[in-house]
Every structure is written in structure tokens, then in C-alpha cells.
């Protein structure tokens, strides 16, 4: 339950952060049989699939370390499904937003144009 709350909080923080950078959020928590796409956004006619990772402590390392080979594969398949299901023809990219909470302070790292493979 704690992980779900942390994840949802991270997604809300990431959404606000991206909107502040000029992104329009199109979908949240899009689910298919291969997994979930946290945020789907658009900016400058570029579709962006955003993976959000949030951590409350540094015990398990940086949030980006949670993006394993299995997670990348799941993301790739989910993105393919979204593109096919929605007949996407515009260019697209993958971003990762990592959120670290230190008490009340929040640190956000935005990785733009991430390669899945």
C-alpha cells in the first residue's frame, strides 16, 4: 500500500512538473496486458511516454535504478500497444521523471529522450 501511495504521489508531482514545462497531459495510468504507462503527454506535436519513479529514501538507490531490463521491455511493449490501439502517426519519445523525497524537500530529475534498448 505504501508503494502505491508513493507512486501516485510521484505521478502527481511529475504531472505538475511537466505541465509547468509546457507539456499537455493526455492520459494517466494507461493500462494494457503488457503493463502501465504512467503518463502520456504532448509538447510541440511530440508524443511523450513518461515513466515516473519515486523514492522516499536513498536506501534502495536512485529511482532510475528501478528501471530494469524487464521494465524497459514492458514499457516498450506497452508503448507499441498504445501506438497501435490509438493509430499514432506523430513522432514520439520516452522520458523518465525521477522524484526523490527528503523529508519535505523534493528533488526532480527529468531524463529526456531515453533509449529503451
TrEMBL record:
<protein>
    <recommendedName>
        <fullName>UPF0102 protein DCY43_00510</fullName>
    </recommendedName>
</protein>
<dbReference type="InterPro" id="IPR011335">
    <property type="entry name" value="Restrct_endonuc-II-like"/>
</dbReference>
<dbReference type="GO" id="GO:0003676">
    <property type="term" value="F:nucleic acid binding"/>
</dbReference>
<keyword id="KW-0255">Endonuclease</keyword>
<dbReference type="Pfam" id="PF02021">
    <property type="entry name" value="UPF0102"/>
</dbReference>
<dbReference type="InterPro" id="IPR003509">
    <property type="entry name" value="UPF0102_YraN-like"/>
</dbReference>
<dbReference type="InterPro" id="IPR011856">
    <property type="entry name" value="tRNA_endonuc-like_dom_sf"/>
</dbReference>
<dbReference type="GO" id="GO:0004519">
    <property type="term" value="F:endonuclease activity"/>
</dbReference>
<comment type="similarity">
    <text>Belongs to the UPF0102 family.</text>
</comment>
<keyword id="KW-0378">Hydrolase</keyword>
<keyword id="KW-0540">Nuclease</keyword>
Amino acid at each position: 500500500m505504501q508503494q502505491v501511495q508513493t507512486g501516485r504521489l510521484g505521478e502527481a508531482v511529475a504531472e505538475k512538473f511537466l505541465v509547468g514545462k509546457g507539456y499537455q497531459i493526455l492520459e494517466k495510468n494507461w493500462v494494457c496486458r503488457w503493463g502501465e504507462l504512467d503518463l502520456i503527454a504532448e509538447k510541440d506535436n511530440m508524443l511523450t511516454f513518461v515513466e515516473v519513479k519515486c523514492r522516499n529514501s536513498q536506501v534502495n538507490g536512485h529511482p532510475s535504478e528501478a528501471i530494469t531490463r524487464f521494465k524497459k521491455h514492458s514499457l516498450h511493449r506497452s508503448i507499441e500497444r498504445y501506438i497501435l490501439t490509438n493509430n499514432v502517426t506523430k513522432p514520439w519519445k520516452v522520458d523518465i521523471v525521477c522524484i526523490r523525497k527528503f523529508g519535505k524537500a523534493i528533488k526532480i530529475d527529468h531524463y529526456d529522450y531515453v533509449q529503451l534498448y
